[in-house]
C-alpha cells in the first residue's frame, strides 16, 4: 500500500478480549465508506474459533471484511481479521504475514505481536486501539507504536467490561485519546485525518521481536539481544525466562521465544500453585485414609502401640490438610 509521506494515519490496529466485541462493532459501524485507512483486528479467541468473523460482519456491511491470508496486500477501507493460531503481522511493503512464532501472553494471535509489527512496518502512520480485556496483552505493542511515532487510543476503563487491559495501558503509556465505546469511532476518525509525522529508524529490539513472532529460529544469542537472564521459569515450556530490556511494561521471554508481561506470568504461576496445592491436598487426604485404616487394622489385632502410632500420624496429617485448604482458598481468592 503506497502512501504520501505526509498522509494521515492509514494503518489502524485494534485489539481486545473480554468485553471488546461490542466496542469493536461500534467503531467499525461508525467508519465512513471511503475511510482512508486499513483496519486490522485481533480479539483473543480459541484456536479453532470463527466467532470474530461473525462479530464483525454482523456489525458492518459498508466495509469489505477479509480473513487474513499470508501474502495478502492490504487496502484502505478494508478490514482484516486475525486467524486462529497464527500471529497477524504487517510488512513495510503493505503485505500481511501470518506468523508461526511462539505464543505471546499465552496467545497466538497476540495483540502485542500485531501492534509491534505495525509499528515496525508503518511507524508514524499507525494508530493502535486497545479495548476492553483482561491482563495486559497489547500494552507492550502500544508502547512500540508510540516509540515509532504512532498514536495510541484506549477505551475508557470505566466504560470497559474488563478494565485491566486499558487500565494497564494508561498506567504505562502516554496515550493520545481515551474514550467510552460510544465515542471511539468518532475519535478514531479524527485521529485518522491527522497528518502523520516523519518516519524514524525502528529500534532493533522491536525488529527482533517481530522476527520472533514471524517464526524466526530463536536461541540464546537472539534472546540476549532483547533481554537479560532472570531466575524465573517459563510456564509454557519450563525454560529459563529473561527480562525484556525496554522501558515499557515489565515483560519476559524464554529461549524458545514465549513472551509475557509480568501480570500474565503471575497469573500462570498462581494457576500452577493452585494445581500443586490441590494435588498435595488430595495426596495427604489419601494418606490420612490409609493410616486410619492401618490403625484400625492394628487395633483389631491387639497391636495397640502400632495403632496409636498411626492415630498420631492421622492427626498430624489432618493439621496439614487444614493448612492446605486455607492456602487453596487464599489462592482462589487472589
TrEMBL record:
Keyword set includes Hydrolase: yes
The CheB-type methylesterase domain, residue ranges: 5-195
Cited Gene3D superfamilies: Methylesterase CheB, C-terminal domain
Record key words, sorted: Chemotaxis, Hydrolase
Active site, renumbered: 17, 44, 137
Gene Ontology, cellular component aspect: cytoplasm
Gene Ontology BP annotations: chemotaxis
Entry-linked InterPro entries: CheB_C, Chemotax_prot-Glu_Me-esterase, Sig_transdc_resp-reg_Me-estase
Reactions catalysed according to its record: [protein]-L-glutamate 5-O-methyl ester + H2O = L-glutamyl-[protein] + methanol + H(+)
EC nos: 3.1.1.61
GO molecular function: phosphorelay response regulator activity; protein-glutamate methylesterase activity
UniProt keyword Nucleotidyltransferase present: no
Name of protein: protein-glutamate methylesterase
Species per Swiss-Prot/TrEMBL record: Dyella jiangningensis
Amino acid at each position: 500500500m503506497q502512501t504520501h509521506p505526509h498522509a494521515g494515519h492509514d494503518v489502524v490496529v485494534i485489539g481486545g478480549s473480554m468485553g471488546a466485541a461490542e466496542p469493536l462493532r461500534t467503531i467499525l459501524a461508525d467508519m465512513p465508506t471511503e475511510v482512508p485507512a486499513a483496519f486490522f483486528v485481533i480479539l483473543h479467541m480459541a484456536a479453532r474459533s470463527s466467532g470474530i468473523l461473525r462479530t464483525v460482519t454482523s456489525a458492518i456491511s459498508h466495509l469489505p471484511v477479509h480473513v487474513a491470508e499470508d501474502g495478502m496486500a492490504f487496502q484502505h477501507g478494508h478490514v482484516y481479521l486475525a486467524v486462529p493460531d497464527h500471529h497477524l503481522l504487517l510488512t513495510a511493503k503493505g503485505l500481511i504475514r501470518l506468523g508461526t512464532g511462539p505464543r505471546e501472553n499465552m496467545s497466538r494471535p497476540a495483540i502485542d505481536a500485531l501492534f509491534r509489527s505495525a509499528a515496525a512496518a508503518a511507524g508514524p502512520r499507525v494508530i493502535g486501539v486497545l479495548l476492553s480485556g483482561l491482563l495486559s496483552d497489547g500494552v507492550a505493542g502500544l508502547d512500540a507504536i508510540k516509540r515509532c511515532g504512532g498514536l495510541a487510543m484506549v477505551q475508557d476503563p470505566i466504560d470497559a467490561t474488563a478494565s485491566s487491559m486499558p487500565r494497564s495501558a494508561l498506567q504505562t503509556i502516554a496515550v493520545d485519546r481515551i474514550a467510552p465505546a460510544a465515542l471511539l469511532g468518532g475519535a478514531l476518525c479524527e485521529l485518522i485525518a491527522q497528518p502523520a509525522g516523519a518516519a524514524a529508524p525502528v529500534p532493533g529490539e522491536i525488529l527482533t521481536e517481530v522476527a520472533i513472532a514471524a517464526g524466526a529460529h530463536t536461541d540464546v544469542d537472539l534472546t540476549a539481544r532483547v533481554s537479560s537472564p532472570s531466575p524465573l521459569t517459563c510456564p509454557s515450556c519450563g525454560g529459563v525466562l529473561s527480562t525484556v530490556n525496554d522501558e515499557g511494561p515489565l515483560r519476559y521471554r524464554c529461549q524458545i521465544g514465549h513472551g509475557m508481561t509480568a501480570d500474565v506470568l503471575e497469573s500462570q504461576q498462581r494457576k500452577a500453585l493452585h494445581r500443586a496445592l490441590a494435588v498435595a491436598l488430595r495426596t495427604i487426604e489419601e494418606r490420612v485414609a490409609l493410616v486410619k485404616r492401618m490403625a484400625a487394622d492394628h487395633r483389631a489385632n491387639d497391636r495397640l502401640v502400632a495403632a496409636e502410632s498411626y492415630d498420631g500420624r492421622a492427626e498430624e496429617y489432618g493439621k496439614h490438610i487444614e493448612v492446605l485448604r486455607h492456602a487453596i482458598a487464599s489462592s482462589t481468592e487472589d
